[in-house]
Write a sequence for this structure.
């Protein structure tokens, strides 16, 4: 009999045998790797988080420095060749300026005979990495120390590329921190409602329905208006994060509640209760791990909503305010048709919002598929 079993095992496809002997987490990992868009998007999200962490190092300039001679300057394109031939080192062309006497606007053109060479790890303005490590080394810059504007400049002559890099920190972290708080609220409140049921479940459901029935924009406006205007940037940042969390926990709480309602009658839960396990142990060591993969997927899909909400609030002037830099604050510069028509590069922060939201959505889709690795 043992020989027959060994013969069957030997005739099996190695891939199938590997699949049958793998753990649940291995199956989920392999299923996630099969989702190519999710893998690529994960790399994009990691890149954005690294940019957010090392914004001072990545940004070539101080995002708060005003340069009147570069007001509304267009983007400089990185080149390796031009009319004068090929160069192994990347460069940009310098600006030429002239005044339009009818509109009094500065007209920028590029001097194709000039080359401003770029290189890595250049000396720039001083900063403190993580507010602890003093340094003046930037990831890239110009040999001469002359400013370069890869995304152009705004109406005050500030480098838009550096401002987008700094904005990545606020916009990405506010999404992740907000979702963590929503995760705690959703798991706790939804878990209590699903596990105990009865009057607790009824009260929680009515609260969720009340919050979900309030129009979103007036609710944002009311909560944002409650933030004192004299608060510091850090205080406003955490206030907006908490506001987004207080609004965003309801959907997750409903998912957790429904899962708890179905799991509390399962045999393994009853067995744990009969063996004397505490309610805390039953909830967090037996019930919650059985569907944690679905919760992770739901949380990942909630992060883009947080980012879009912060962007919308800041764009409308109800969220973060200058001098705080976020993608939504940067998009305030492009609130009118004149700005979009004359300086379209001010819309570039919106492209980063799209990239971040799409990437996080694809990661969430991949995690959702991986949560059920047995489906084809």
């Amino acid at each position: 009999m043992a020989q027959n079993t060994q013969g069957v095992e030997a005739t099996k496809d190695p891939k199938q045998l590997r699949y049958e002997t793998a753990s649940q987490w291995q199956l989920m990992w392999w299923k996630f790797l099969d989702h190519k868009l999710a893998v690529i998007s994960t790399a994009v999200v990691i890149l954005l988080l690294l940019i957010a962490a090392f914004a001072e190092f990545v940004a070539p300039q101080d995002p708060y420095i005003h340069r009147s001679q570069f007001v509304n300057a267009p983007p400089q394109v990185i080149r390796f060749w031009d009319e004068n031939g090929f160069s192994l080192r990347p460069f940009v062309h310098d600006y030429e300026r002239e005044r339009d006497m009818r509109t009094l606007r500065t007209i920028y053109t590029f001097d194709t005979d000039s080359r401003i060479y770029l290189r890595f790890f250049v000396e720039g303005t001083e900063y403190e990495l993580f507010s602890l490590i003093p340094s003046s080394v930037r990831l890239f810059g110009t040999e001469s120390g002359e400013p370069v504007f890869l995304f152009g400049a705004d109406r005050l002559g500030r480098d838009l590329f550096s401002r987008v890099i700094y904005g990545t920190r606020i916009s990405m972290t506010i999404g992740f921190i907000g979702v963590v708080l929503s995760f705690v609220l959703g798991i706790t409140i939804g878990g209590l409602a699903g596990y105990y049921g009865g009057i607790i479940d009824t009260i929680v459901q009515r609260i969720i329905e009340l919050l979900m029935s309030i129009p979103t924009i007036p609710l944002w406006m009311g909560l944002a208006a409650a933030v004192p205007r004299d608060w510091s940037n850090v205080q406003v940042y955490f206030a907006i994060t908490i506001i987004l969390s207080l609004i965003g926990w309801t959907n997750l709480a409903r998912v957790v509640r429904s899962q708890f309602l179905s799991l509390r009658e399962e045999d393994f839960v009853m067995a744990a209760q009969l063996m004397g396990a505490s309610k805390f142990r039953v909830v967090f060591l037996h019930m919650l791990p059985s569907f944690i993969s679905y919760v992770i997927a739901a949380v990942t899909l909630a992060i883009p909503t947080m980012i879009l909400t912060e962007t919308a609030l800041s764009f409308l002037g109800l969220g973060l305010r200058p001098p705080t830099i976020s993608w939504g604050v940067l998009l305030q510069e492009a609130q009118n048709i004149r700005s979009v028509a004359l300086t379209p590069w001010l819309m570039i922060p919106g492209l980063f919002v799209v990239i971040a939201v799409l990437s996080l959505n694809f990661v969430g889709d991949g995690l959702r598929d991986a949560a059920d690795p047995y489906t084809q």
Notes: DSSP finds 16 helices and four strands in the chain. The radius of gyration is 27 Å.
